[in-house]
Amino acid sequence: MTGIRSAPPVLLRPRVDGSVPERLARSAAATDGIVLRTEDFAAWFARRRDAHPFRVERIPFDRLEGWSFHERTGDLVHRSGRFFTVEGLHVTVDEGRRGDWHQPIIRQAEVGILGILAKEFHGVLHLLMQAKMEPGNVNLLQLSPTVQATRSNYTKVHRGADVKYLDYFTRPGRGRVLADVLQSEHGAWFLHKSNRNMIVEALDDVTVAPDFCWLTLGQIGLLLHQDNVVNMDARTVLACAPVAAVPPSVSPVPSVPLVSPEPAGGPGDAFGLFTRALRRSREPGTGALHSDTELLSWFTAERSRQDVAVRRVPLRELPGWHRAPDVVERADGRGFRVVAVSVAAASREVSAWTQPLIEPNGMGVMAFAVRRIDGVLHVLVHARVEGGYLDTVELAPTVQYVPGEFVAAAGEEPAGRPPFLDLILAAAPDRVRYEAVHSEEGGRFLAAQSRYLLVEFGDEDGDDDGPVPLQEPPGYRWATPGQLSSLVGHGHYLNVQARTLLACLNALAGAP
Amino acid sequence: MTGIRSAPPVLLRPRVDGSVPERLARSAAATDGIVLRTEDFAAWFARRRDAHPFRVERIPFDRLEGWSFHERTGDLVHRSGRFFTVEGLHVTVDEGRRGDWHQPIIRQAEVGILGILAKEFHGVLHLLMQAKMEPGNVNLLQLSPTVQATRSNYTKVHRGADVKYLDYFTRPGRGRVLADVLQSEHGAWFLHKSNRNMIVEALDDVTVAPDFCWLTLGQIGLLLHQDNVVNMDARTVLACAPVAAVPPSVSPVPSVPLVSPEPAGGPGDAFGLFTRALRRSREPGTGALHSDTELLSWFTAERSRQDVAVRRVPLRELPGWHRAPDVVERADGRGFRVVAVSVAAASREVSAWTQPLIEPNGMGVMAFAVRRIDGVLHVLVHARVEGGYLDTVELAPTVQYVPGEFVAAAGEEPAGRPPFLDLILAAAPDRVRYEAVHSEEGGRFLAAQSRYLLVEFGDEDGDDDGPVPLQEPPGYRWATPGQLSSLVGHGHYLNVQARTLLACLNALAGAP
Question: Do B301 and A14 touch (CB under 8 A)?
């Protein structure tokens, strides 16, 4: 074939850089870092917390500065016309028990950037993470991506400080792009919102600003076992990292012992089988219960058969909802609330502000049921309708449950408890492979916590099929983490909750 | 790694069936078929035409049966509430010369199925194509997919006959799925419309109904060189075929001579270099000017930087448009028209009907500028905004031009002629690698013809860069046909015009 070339191949580059997944896997296998030792993280994080005294208080709506309810529509808007608005939405679905409902929804048409800067130290990729305060965060300070910027941020609508490291993500060629994909945000709370999820490798020297630190993917994996430390924006970006399978014996930092995260109550042996099956799913040539084409065909059919119609309606006219001086909520108390807070802090781009937030009704449960099938890990994904998705359904965890939340699920049970919820909640501790509480985005949601779980079911050869069978109910499919990593390279396949669990699976890929 | 398996791998299958692209490529290389010889196609097609006498006439709107202008909105609607409606749209864009415009648009929320049934005869995949009449088609009868069904079709809203072969595409497991993806339709004429594009291989015997025939991909490739024979629905499905590179010497029908389609005026040698570079782009391990990650990152940036807001408005109130007894059109004559026709035919599911159609203002031009770079074919794609896309931009041909059409292109020139149009129109005949006139979907568009072209520029090593340089202007990128085939496995990357050209590239892959 070389005969047809009229010139040496000097202009072309490989379509796929095979070294990137391997380098990310090596970073996942490194549970200690070159720059900040894992044992020193807590002290560093505490210092960042101390360095930024701040105060978040609930306030009535009439103390919001720049925000008001629009005279005609009753929508909650900012006088600049930017940031976001809280409007009403009427959702009609063709499937499921509840045919239609009304709800408030956040509209923020612009695309933000969630970007993590990466750099190799001693042959191991480290990620530049930020200790960042968000008013809705549990613990207020959480570990965030390097850059977390709405377009308003970087076009200076709020006249704040520059966003640090932004040019790595907005100037093509400033670094080497490892991942860059538009991903959806919460479809239950946002209308058609998506953000750019980016990982960019710096090829020059990077000066580390005070609230920033370099961590390996393995170190972040350890922190993902702690409650409310790694924020949602970091988790969704980490989900997009194209991680390969690397055996735990390949430790790129030989002087540092690999620390196994202790699974919640599980015996080491079961956890070892789980992580080996997880790595197997990412090895080249490993099969799956359904081929990629079959999985995509099922997804296409799910997306096609759903008729979801949404209509924006004035917040003022939202049936069943009423507005009090400090809250917009349902008369029956179900669902979430719209509230307002004031914030005083030094570490944000501006030093003090007020803003609305969405406050859910209680702790959510987000869980993948997982199985080893022929030694390869599979997770049970659910094709889920939410009113705010750009296109009818996205793939969600097996269980995605927020008390009182409006759902349209073909398999929803009469009591409003989704399939598999009680099974997950009742799982024996030795079945739980991962468990931690995480917050959703603290810039829009107030104390929106969920318990994230990976729970293993079944025996490997399918003989004892158990309560989570190989033969899936309608709307559900077994897929491998390797298949999810392929899908998350494109937008609107995996929802944000599934991406948090995929980020955990990515980070666990390095565990022994 | 086998030690971790507790059971033989009986449940798993390969994620990717590597034989499918190869089998499709063999079909593309077969320019004659086992069932219907290429030389007999014209006679068969003429017989189908004779078998179905029909008549399409323009009528005034008040002769439409079941259709009327809604009393309040002026929208053109069907009394069943199904099929489609013609409404008004206000489009606002942040980029480009024209900041906003009003236009009529077709709204048809439901997802249709465009499906081609495949089956192997003597080791070669053949595709079951249908001679189907559509009222807007030039020549009326064109070659269509096996199934071309709106949801109204198969739920029998119009009380017509059964859709033949439909269960292969709606019943999982009825055949082997080779491709299944939601793809957008014309964003300038449809609001958020997408169809399922499917190729399914039959594993059982198939009875061939009178209007149907089995053709190889190579035979269809020959027909794609004729004007107005292969309809749009067939072309978009063929674009989704995951074709591999197979050298022309591998002819799966050795008794049949391979017929080279004569390029329009080009010498055989240049055409041979072109097809070899085309095949090279699909070989495993072949590089590209931009890696897949870089290409996706550029696309993500293009999609993110565009602010496109659309608002549905009543057709009655559309500024600049007026309604006459037989047409809705712009007062200045620019853009397209909404008209009505009556149809009498025996070969449709129902025997006579009336319906509205969109009629564009003239012949369009859809062209890829192509270059051989280091012996690998590249095409210049354009990130194009259209008001009806689900998400701001999709990848379009280098030139996509319909006279008077509303466009929002960052690079649009003052005269309203897009970049590269005059270059394409002025190209010397020996630069033209493909040229044919095709119609857009005849069920919605009346005589919507475009000249589709592949025109080669530049020399291979980039020394003489010429008018279509290696360094792309903003909004454009060089991509290989192999990269486009990867992208078209997912929805909303390639627009329908680019998919027609990709279908031609797929079919040409078998040419010697």
Answer: no
